[in-house]
Write a structure and sequence with these properties.
Length: about 240
Amino acid sequence: MKTCLCLLLIISSWPAFSNEKVTIFIQEYQPYISINNKELSGVSVDLLKSLFDRAGIEYALKSRPFKRAYETVLGNTHESEGEQCLFPMQATQENAADFKWIGPVMVTESGFFAKDTVIRHISELKGKTIGSYIGSVDGESLERLGFSVEYTRNTLLNALKVDADRMVALVEDIKVAEHILNKNKIEDVELVYPYKKYLNYLACGSTLSEEKYKKLESSLSYLYEDGSIKSLIKML
């Protein structure tokens, strides 16, 4: 009887979310993630589906602004509950210990976009205003290097400012910036200097079970080996 009682106590102490869906926070970031009438599409959405389906883990996507999602996964908001992840996320020295990292899931590259400007070295932008968006890793790293960075809500606002000669350059993921420029027919603003390549990870909170973590890592390895990730990224 004592043994049964102990087992019941152990089972009751397990986290209530152990068999629930993993929540993944994302935000619209075309062409990687598109949200239209609450319908989600894009390469990042397809990558996550392949990753979790292969691992046999149920998940749910929720759209949230980056900063809010970041704090939620860290356990700092009223939405912090159960097993939660954020995608995409770049690992840095500052955040390396804060998450359980699965990846890299894909590699992206950022660059500087300007109008009628030639840049041979990044130092030529010192003392000039560079546009970025709130939460941008590029913007924050440039600020730490002593560059003047102006933050707006999104890249389109920065592109319009560059086009109107109110800002010298903007920094953004190359494919994202090109998508925005083409969609809004901003023809005079173009890539003038590639900046950094980034490894993009699925960043999960400490509550993600070790079992699910290992399954996701194994699933990712398989998707690389069978060429699935390469095929999906080619669609961009």
